[in-house]
Fold these 3 entries.
Entry 1:
Amino acid sequence: MTTRRRGAAVGIATAVMAVAGVLTAAPASAAHGVLVVSGNRIDDPSGCYQGHHWPLVVDNRTDQVALVLDDDNCGGQVVGTVAPGEKQVFEFGASVHIR
């Protein structure tokens, strides 16, 4: 594994652990705001949402971090995170999970 790839893997692993800590500490309620996944607007989202277009575009206008996964129905590996107020494009994203 190259140093660049190792650095990216460590960065993603660190982000996933940080998000996992935030998600476990969050109350059991929907995120407040709007999540846009593949052009579909979801008000006060909670749970799993499918990406219907490639590449997957996630616009997170909520107060929670969104996890992007590489398989349908929020299965597979986390390929990235989208912090509140961020918009990102994922070549290998298939679904998005938010609490």
Note: The first strand starts at residue 33 and ends at 37.
Entry 2:
Amino acid sequence: MKKKHNLKKVFWALGTLVILITVGIFGFMWFENETVLDALYLTTITISTVGFGLPHELTTGGKIFTIFLIIFSFGNYAYAISIITTHLVEGQIYDVLGVRKRNKGKNMKNHVIICGFGRNGRKVSQELKARGEEYIVIDQDHEVVMNYTDEPTKFIEGDATEDDVLEQAGIHNAKSIISTMPADADNLFVVLTARSLNPDIVIISRASNDSADRKLHVAGVDHVVMPESVGGAHMAKLVSRSDVLEFLDHLSLTGSSETNLEVIEYDELPDEFKNKSIMEMAVRQLVGANIVGFKTPKGEFIINPSPDTIIIPDSKIFILGTPEQIKKINLKKLAPDYISKELKKSQLHLEREYGLSVLSLVRKGKISAVVAQLSKEIEADLVVMGTHGKTGIQKITGSHAMKLIHAVHIPVLVVQTREVGHGYKKIIFPINVSVSYDVKIDWTIFIAKAYDAQVLLYLMKTNEEKLQYGIKKLTHKIVENFKAHNISYLLEEASSERNFPAQIQKFAAEKSGDLIMIKVDDDEFEPIFIHGALEETMIYNESQIPVFCAQKK
């Protein structure tokens, strides 16, 4: 292994000392007629400023020579000694650390080897560290290694193209190696050496041009990255497709973003899920994340795979979700027996704590279709549904919650993580003229009586006479119904014509509302329309106030 302990500086320091001592010896022999040993003694105590006594009084010439020797040797001697001392001490410390790190490299398994610790290498290490991946760095520059000995990063100082260095880094047990060195020839040698030592390792290499790209693939590399090409293409796409790139940049692999992307291989799945369909895995239902991609054993990518897609050997699935959802994913817990146990646990809790009669069951399929079918079979009166909010592609296609609400055609109570509190004492009742209000009025009266609640009517503001007339007429009808059933109510109009859904949320938060009443249109679910609809905006209100979605029944 090559070692570069700043040998030029060390040789210069030694040369300076030799010259100073030689000049001193000849000078004292000339001016004082000293022997070689006495001249060496006088030279040593002079340039080192030790200050021992002189064996005899110096002549005038000897005194003048001594003065000039002190002037010229003082700084050079101190600097030379410091260089030599630093070399010896750091060399010994590094050897100790180096041996330890090499031993760690040999003991590592399923880790990543980074060859070269320049700009690209450091960026790779940052990403791997953020993902919790274990890795080790190889670099020939001693100063780079010494500057990072206080970091948790494992280093080996050496030439990554040599077999023994890669073996010290644990090449036989590593899962991948990344070569980021600036010279294409060095990267090519790393690829050849790594492939010969570990035929199964995944090799990723930097390249500066297309010619190097072709040679690296011939040598056995799995992936090639050309930083200049990638950067240029990215900048060009920013001109015409900036929104798309901004969305992709929003996705993160490190956990630092709102949305993360995770890949899970077939071998990482429990036996219960191997050779099963995506539908049977029920990842969305359990943790709120989405399976957005599938990679076949042949390397083909399928975006937004069908729920019927079977997870077969050598395949991979790609999961999109928030960092919290990704952390919650423990596929060993997603087996059917685990789901049944969790449902049974919830059933016992409801029966013991609240005296409810509860039946639990597990069915396969899309949640909206399953709940809709079940609600018909048992002639259900109400669906209570929790939601984690919209993530990933749902922000474009619409949420699973709205799909379920439109599928069941019965009232749905949507709750988030807000505490139950003291019941429904303040009911927020928005009024516009977009939907029929008969069902909404009936349910509001029913709930208000059950909880002795006050209803806060919040009217949409408009300057259009036709709409004003419609809202006034509707409000009169609602008030008359409330009076007939002795329901307490208050009236308030929105302060602006703009963004009525946002004003409803603000009003509900200011009034400490316990429940928001909405009426869901009877039309079929339309993702593009519903993406910005009032109903969906209310369901995901920032205050997490429960929302009652009134429907026909």
Note: Residues 243-333 form a domain with the Alpha-Beta Plaits fold (CATH 3.30.70.1450).
Entry 3:
Amino acid sequence: MASPSVNGHVTNTLLPELAHVPSLGTESGGDVAFAKGATSVDPATEIAQTGTMEPLEIVAAPNDEIVYPTGTKFAVVAMALGLTLVITGLDFSILATAIPTITQEFKTTADIGWYVAAFRLSFASVQFLFVNFERPLQPSSVLSILQGKLYQNFSLKIVFLVCCVIFELGSLICATAPSSTAFVIGRAVCGAGASGIIQGIFAIAVLSVSVRDRGLYGGIAAGVEAIALSTGPVIGGAITQSAGWRWCFYMNLPIGAVTIILIIAFFDLPQRNPNVDLPWKEKIKRLDLVGTTLFIPSITSLLLALQYGGTKYSWNNPRIIVLFIVFGTLLGMFAWLQYKKQDEATIPPRIFFLNNAAMNLIDYYLPLYFQTVKQVSVARSGVLSLPITVGLGISLFIGGAGTTLSGYYTPFMIVTSVLAPIAAGLLTTIKVDAKLANLLGYQALLGFGSGIGFQGPQVAVQTILAPNDVPIGIAIIQFAQALGPALSVPIGQLIYTTQLTTNLKKYAPAVNGTTLENIGLLNIGSQFQGSELAGILRSYDKAITYTFYLSVVLTCLTLVGSVGIGWRSVKQKQT
């Protein structure tokens, strides 16, 4: 689900394109078919762009009719899916304001990058098991809409419930973590569960909502998700300040338990998936286990090299060199494997955008700036981060409406590639004594600039690609936008750590990073005073703003994709 960053995301971050599944009706018979059959357009995206959903013709097949749940059963299933959207949506953004408190308890800031990367890397990697990156075959039954490999070959209900249990287990590990390492493990487990949950939510929705009503409920789901994502930092700050950061994860347990019980009791598959009866050997063969096995250690090796290179070990240390070699070798093998599995290139690489990576970097380090340099409370830092969300929400509407009226998405993508670097650049200028109005204004500009063209990639794949290739394009965007923050935040952490060490030697030579970690970031104001405190705050200011330079670079690079994507009107019929 590719979304802009409302503290990392918005309406499509978690929301896979609900109608990017093949039409339920086929030439060989099916129960539902799109009236015009030319393209498969996501209802949520269409609503965002046009404000309306074009009526779809429902064609009933005499021998394969799907019976959608109604009444109480439908309401309960919808509520269960909504609750799941809320807790997974919050999990993407709730940590932003809680991180300084977490680092204070664990007495280390070295793992900040891993708190984000572990979740994102796990989320992206496990998508290989849930998302089918190969061209979809023409479906022969209702259950062929399940594009995920696990969901195609195993019981949808069982796989979804297992993913919920995995997410709950990860939340429990995070909530009870005795150390930073345990917390990172919990985040990775949460990411794996969330990846499967997101795919499952909309697979269940497709089997629970008629084609005619999917636009309405897709829009509602997008709204629920957007609210969860945008309020995550505020909720996280309030919970952390009142009950403690661990309750950001404890609260997932009862909500998840209710969801599991409701799905068990009220959701029934409309027809049996014949693949469930396949031999286990055949099922395992259909999963991309080799790809996942190559990808995870590859990126992990890179993250380890970035974390320890230049800090614990020098860059020319054999350990760091070996990590880079392992990264390059395994990634090359993974790329070769994916290339061999494709019958031809499916989507141009220029549509990969770096806004999500840039925005997440700012989302996680800006609250750190507020709480350390400005010495504000955890809850207030969440409130002060809201201008990004406001600007983003306004620009998403303008971008969608503008695309609908003009028929072109490229101009809005170019505007994003111009405004976002300017806003990120302005954030690099903030100082210890920066005025609050400037901080809020820069954030609002960043949110507005990033959001106005963010829907462009999703619209582009629906416009440029053939209908059968749209799910592949969307899946690749989802994967890239999940992977971006997994890499950008650890790289930002490397910049932050290096700059903090350098600046402490310059502005507060009597203090070192270890001392500050033992004291805790939130206690700096009470433990130091005078010129020493001023030097420490200036060191943190320099370290944090230097990480924003990476956001400037990433947002500037989006101009290459925006200019090169070409001009194609969404009003033109796809041939």
Note: The longest helix spans residues 470-507.
